[in-house]
Amino acid sequence: IDDAGARDFLAALRAFLDEYGRRGDPICDIAAVSWVEDPAPAVATLRDYPTQPDRDLEAERRAQAAERERLASEARQRLAGYPAPVVARFTTLLAAAQAATVIHEDHNYWIDQRAIYAVRRVLQEFGRRFAAAGVLAVPDDVFALTPEEIRVTAATLPRLDRRDLARERAADLARFRAVPPPPALGTPPAAPPPDDPVGRTIGKFFGAPPQPPSEPGVLRGHAGAPGTARGTARVLRSLAEADRLRPGDVLVAPTTAPPWTPLFATAAAVVTDTGGILSHCAVVAREYGIPAVVGAGTATARIADGQVVEVDGDAGVVRIVV
After folding, report:
1. Which value, to the nearest 10 degrees, does the dihedral of the CA atoms of residues 50, 53, 56, 57 take?
2. How far apart are the first and last CA of the chain?
3. At a CB cut-off of 8 Å and minimum separation 6, what does 292 contact?
4. Which residue, 242, 236, 224, 247, is CA-closest to 299?
5. Mean of the per-residue pLDDT values for the chain?
6. What is the pTM of this model?
């Protein structure tokens, strides 16, 4: 490349991908292509950034920190007359929540992204060698094998032909992709989660079952992030479709995970089928300051791509306008 600006951009992009590009969609799927291998999702997000209004992100961060301290101070004032053990319990739980936020982000970076990517690279090398030996049709077919099958295949190379097995499993995967998954496997517990910090957290992460539709064109879920926004619905079922999202669109998805985070800078609002107020979508939407309704149940089925929808993140309601 002769253009100095282009060379600088590519160098910066490579540095970013080297640090943060070991993520794929869906998360924790060792067969998912990472941004390092295909940077299209990162490039698409960069393409949309210039269309965003100017923001002082550092000032926003300081304002959020000040709001956090104000609310914590108000809570301490309300607890001033309570017994010392109650006040100590609040202090302990607040510190634990603040520490857990960092641990959650770090765990995602080191385990869900970097560690899985390292294992993926090892399996890709097995796949390359298996394909070269003729026991697999293409290297990526290695992801259709179990760890034990990979071990045995490597130990007996090239005597064990896995091409038919990989082809059968690929057909099974294609067939099951067309089967709507049930809300859960097995029989849900009859009793609600225990009323303790862990039980309440689990309930708020996964959310309660969505309310059944009570009026045409209206979906109800959980109030994930405050505010109201109206825009064109863009129904995305995987990050492979992320290039269809345009500034001002309403992102509608089954769920979101950390690799989806850059899309929140483009979307005007977010709606998901699953999740509660502590789900990834709700937390990130609040951080980005856009409305979100989570746990709407059938949003991706009832909202057609291209329809105009209104997202009321305060009430947890989505209205199909057109």
Report:
1. -70
2. 47
3. 224, 225, 269, 270, 271, 272, 281, 282, 285, 286, 311, 313
4. 236
5. 90
6. 0.75
Known catalytic residue: 104? no
Q: How far apart are CA 232 and CA 320, in angstroms?
A: 10
Q: What is the pLDDT of residues 22-52, one digit of tens each?
A: 988 777 789 989 999 999 888 877 887 787 7
d(CA 212, CA 214): 6
Could you give the residue ranges of the DSSP H alpha helices within 211-279? none
Read off the tokens for 38: 């295909």
Kindly report, residue by residue over 86-114, the tens digit of the pLDDT: 999 999 999 998 998 888 778 888 888 89
Residue 4, C-beta contacts closer than 8 angstroms, at least 6 positions apart: none
Tracing tokens 């089925």 back to the chain, one arrives at 301
| 228-235 β-sheet, strand order | 218-220, 317-320, 308-312, 228-235, 250-253, 269-272, 292-294, 222-225
Pairing of strands 269-272, 308-312: unpaired
What is the reported pLDDT for 183? 66
Is residue 1's pLDDT more than 70? no
The CB-side HSE value for 299 (13 A sphere, CA atoms) comes to 35
Active-site position among 104, 107, 222, 280: 280
